[in-house]
UniProtKB/TrEMBL annotation:
Gene Ontology biological-process entries: 2-oxoglutarate metabolic process
Record domain FAD/NAD(P)-binding: where: 20-362
This protein's UniProt keywords: FAD, Flavoprotein, NAD
A UniProt-annotated Pfam family: Pyr_redox_dim
Domain of life: Bacteria
Matches recorded under InterPro entries: Class-I_Pyr_Nuc-Dis_Oxidored (IPR050151), FAD/NAD-bd_sf (IPR036188), FAD/NAD-binding_dom (IPR023753), FAD/NAD-linked_Rdtase_dimer_sf (IPR016156), Pyr_nucl-diS_OxRdtase_dimer (IPR004099)
GO MF, one annotated term: flavin adenine dinucleotide binding
UniProt family annotation: Belongs to the class-I pyridine nucleotide-disulfide oxidoreductase family.
Requisite cofactors: FAD
Residue intervals of the Pyridine nucleotide-disulphide oxidoreductase dimerisation domain: 383-490
Protein name: Pyridine nucleotide-disulphide oxidoreductase dimerisation region
PANTHER family, alphabetized: DIHYDROLIPOYL DEHYDROGENASE, MITOCHONDRIAL (PTHR22912:SF151), DISULFIDE OXIDOREDUCTASE (PTHR22912)
Length: 503
């Protein structure tokens, strides 16, 4: 079989027959991690991916967006105009894709990589039947058996990792890729022609893009239906980012519903909204008639976030799957669906919607398939988050609001950037690390905001996963000066603080 990686024609020996122990449908972060883990553990494994190696995340998702966020710093430092920032981002993306492609080529030597879409058919007594719809993959596939027609393979087990796609949270607002956009359009835009943008939704995507556009000198209007931006984060983190964004000139409107969108002359848009709706009734859009309390703003673009549309594989209806009202697949704590030997990972499973969670899920499934006695179950308690806002936000574990609502006693400690020699030497004195301790000085949660603060989260994740008590962490001889000392200072303050009771 011939397939393409990085524009190069690579001949792949057909080591296996058309029967596999495992077929993974969807080659994003979770699917790739799952397939590689399974192959390394000895399963004959095929990975079906219709897009770029690494899936849509590498082709159009989080990776290109993060590259653009970093390139926008050139604008902030007055080193380049917007179009040069965009060119730099594209250069970085193309170079990194080529390197990623080369890396995957070596790692995929244990795998059978199949370009195209997999359609789930009926199952036999032991194997599931899968129909492969051919596709172009970094060039034209030359195998006539693929390009001229479909082919069939079978698998003992299937992992569905086809993820979700961006959608509009407002039914009346159609994504056209020109005036109304999602993150998938960011690398194709001409930023010099944009003076203002409205971002609907102030969760992670909305807040990351608000910082990006603001750095590019574009007036940002950030609309959120809840009380706060980053509504699912720790309250102090949310408040701190909101304060910083307002200082930067970003216009934030919370408790807000959009009541109408109108095309004006040229390519401008008029957006009407109401900010007097407590909690906005859980919907970004109100179909009520506009009234005197409604306000309006004119913008060049509208970017929609927060809405994800499940991308179920073709033929999923042929399997006895339980589909939720949101279009996700019901799974248990081992990511098993209601169909025997069919597993679901990533956004499609409805767990934590992040790449690192999907990777963790994929590896867990492969381990259970090869080492069933381990009987691993998914646990999202130690899944960290990193948001590339400006400044960055990161954390792991429960929030202070959660502890208060559950009436769980805790201790809190905070260490500030303005008291750390390393952050002061970098010229960044705005930020903090917040630690929440429970019984026996166990780490319940850590939440942070500040310049490059995400670099601390990996070590903290290891500490929480390993259940290392806080008293052991404070004894570590960390480098001085370093940002890691912020963690030590916050823990020491928490240890020496009176416990907070909540009723």
């Amino acid at each position: 079989m011939l397939f393409f990686q990085g524009g190069k024609n690579i001949k792949k020996q057909n080591k296996f027959s058309n029967q596999y122990d495992l077929v993974v449908i969807g080659g994003g972060p979770g699917g790739t991690a799952c397939a590689l883990k399974a192959a390394r553990l000895g399963l004959t494994t095929a990975l079906i991916e219709k897009d770029f190696p690494g899936g849509g995340s590498v082709a159009r998702g989080y990776f290109p967006v993060k590259a653009l966020i970093e390139a926008a710093k050139l604008k902030e430092n007055k080193l380049a105009p917007n179009e040069e920032c965009l060119a730099k981002a594209n250069e970085r993306v193309n170079k990194a894709r080529a390197q990623w492609d080369s890396s995957l080529t070596k790692r995929f030597e244990q795998l059978y990589l199949i370009p195209g879409e997999g359609e789930l058919l009926s199952s036999t007594s032991e194997f599931y039947q899968i129909k492969i719809h051919s596709s172009k993959y970094q060039g034209e596939i030359q195998d006539p058996n693929i390009i001229d027609g479909d082919r069939y393979i079978s698998a003992k087990s299937i992992v569905m990792a086809t993820g979700t796609a961006p959608g509009s949270p407002i039914p009346e607002l159609t994504i056209d890729g020109k005036n109304v956009i999602t993150h998938e359009h960011l690398l194709d835009m001409h930023y010099n022609n944009i003076n203002s943008i409205a971002i609907i939704g102030a969760d992670v995507e909305g807040c990351e893009f608000a910082g990006l556009f603001n750095r590019l000198g574009i007036q940002v209007h950030l609309l959120e239906m809840e009380d706060n931006i980053l509504p699912n984060c720790d309250q102090e983190i949310s408040n701190s980012l909101s304060t910083e964004y307002k200082k930067q000139g970003i216009k934030i409107k919370t408790n807000t519903q959009v009541t109408g969108v109108q095309n004006l002359e040229g390519e401008a848009l008029k957006l009407t909204y109401n900010s007097n709706t407590p909690q906005a009734h859980g919907d970004y859009y109100s179909s009520k008639t506009e009234n005197e309390s409604d306000k309006s703003l004119e913008v060049d673009k509208i970017l929609v976030t927060g809405k994800r549309i499940p991308q179920l594989p073709k033929g999923y209806a042929n399997l006895p799957l339980k589909i939720t009202q949101e279009g996700l697949v019901e799974v248990n704590s081992q990511l098993e669906s209601s169909a025997p030997e069919v597993y679901v990972i990533g956004d499609l499973a409805g767990g934590v919607p992040s790449a690192n969670a999907a990777i963790h899920e994929g590896k867990l499934v492969s381990q259970n398939l090869t080492e069933p006695r381990k009987n691993k179950h998914i646990n999202y308690s130690f899944t960290p988050y990193v948001f590339f806002t400006d400044p960055q936000t990161s954390g792991i574990g429960v929030t202070e609001d959660y502890l208060r609502n559950k009436k769980i006693p805790y201790k809190k400690g905070i260490a500030y950037f303005k008291e750390n020699l390393r952050t002061l030497s970098l010229g960044h004195d705005n930020g903090f690390v917040k630690v929440l301790l429970g019984k026996n000085e166990s780490l319940l949660g850590v939440h942070m905001i500040g310049h490059d603060i995400s670099e601390l989260i990996s070590v903290i994740t290891v500490a929480m996963q390993s259940k290392i008590p806080a008293s052991k962490i404070v004894d570590l001889p960390l480098p001085h000066p370093s940002m890691g000392e912020l963690m030590i200072e916050a823990i020491e303050e928490a240890i020496n603080t009176r416990i907070t009771t909540t009723g």
